[in-house]
Amino acid sequence: MNLPIGVPIGGVVEPTTAAIQRLGIVGAGQMGRGIAQLAASHQLDVLLMDAGLDVAERGKARVAADLGRLVEKGKLAAADRDATLARISPSDLYGDLESVDFVIEAATESLATKREIFHALDERCRAGVVLATNTSSISITEIAGAVIRPGRVIGMHFMNPPPLMKLVEIIRGLATADETYSTTRALAERLDKTTVVSRDIPGFIVNRILMPMLNEACFALYEGIGTAEDIDVAIGLGLRHPMGPLTLMDLIGLDTALAILEVLHEQLGDSRYRPCPLLRQYVAAGWLGRKTGRGFYQYPSSSSSSSSVSPSMSPTSTAPAPDRPEPPSRGSAVRG
């Protein structure tokens, strides 16, 4: 039985990661399984939870596929792959939460969904367990309003893909305890991440700056200022970005980008965050980017399950990356 993470005092925890041996992750999608792979590769046991056991098992299978490609390329030993996979235990929602020492929620970017999850976590997890959310835009204070002990709730925003990207944004809600912050930062550093701290303002640091640019790229396409390829080449070469904004949105997922923009627009009331109508149209059509095989570009069937991106890009898919990115071929852009 793992030791508790410090002694709870008024709903807070002592700052230490020494006792964190089992990590609970709620959500086996793109981000959740990426965090699971990262944690398991750093010798942490992972309980990977989702709405159904079959969903969680599919998440683990995707991790296995990604690690398998690394083995094929000679970048990972087969024994290390097997050890990493052995540390990931798929589960249905809220399975065996008594055994976990730290929880990271990586579910849909919806306040109602996250509040429901955190209410359940607060009831089922031990009092000293930190409850972190991987939200990229939603208020930590509002999420913490669903729990009895808001001092243990914090934002821990990994970039995508978590195994490759070095940054973790840490966001403190109004009630987040100092000990909760210290424990979360120490865990991020244990996972070889660099941390920055953001105020609990919608979008935090990264998406507050990134999303207006991506949205403006959508408007540029919508208004016929340039083709998708020309917009991406212009920003890639003109601003020395590692990839163009439309390619990046395809990697993020157009539905995710839309959800973040809607939160920013609603919470901040600034028209610069008003989602482009073309983005809404693509999401309504089911053109969500690489994960569905079509977004601003069309992709081969293999690209819808994994993508080839450079480790220096943010945020991206969870697939292992080659040395250089592989941009969509010319002529493959979907016209607006």
When the domains are counted, the total is 2
Shape: globular
Q: Give the count of helical stretches.
A: 11
The helix-and-strand class reads: alpha/beta
Biggest sheet, strands in spatial order? 3-2-1-4-5-6-7-8
Total beta strands: 8
The CATH topology of the largest domain is given as Rossmann fold
Order of helices and strands: EHEHHEEHEHEEHEHHHHH
| CATH architecture identity of the largest domain | 3-Layer(aba) Sandwich
Distance between the termini: 56 Å
Can you summarize the main beta sheet? 8 strands, mixed
Task: Summarize the structure in short.
This protein has 336 residues and is an alpha/beta fold. 40% of the residues lie in helices and 12% in strands.
Descriptive overview:
This protein is an alpha/beta fold and about 325 residues long. The chain folds into 2 domains: about 20-200, NAD(P)-binding Rossmann-like Domain (Rossmann fold, 3-Layer(aba) Sandwich); about 210-305, N-(1-d-carboxylethyl)-l-norvaline Dehydrogenase, domain 2. Helices cover about 40% and strands about 10% of the residues. The protein has 11 helices and 8 strands. The chain has helices at about 30-40, 55-70, 80-85, 110-125, 140-145, 180-190, 205-220, 230-240, 245-250, 255-270, 275-285, and strands at about 20-25, 45-50, 90, 100-105, 130-135, 155-160, 165-170, 195-200. An 8-stranded mixed sheet has the order 3-2-1-4-5-6-7-8, with helices on both faces. Helix 4 (about 110-125) links the parallel strand 4 and strand 5. Mean pLDDT is about 85; it is low at about 1-15 and about 305-335.
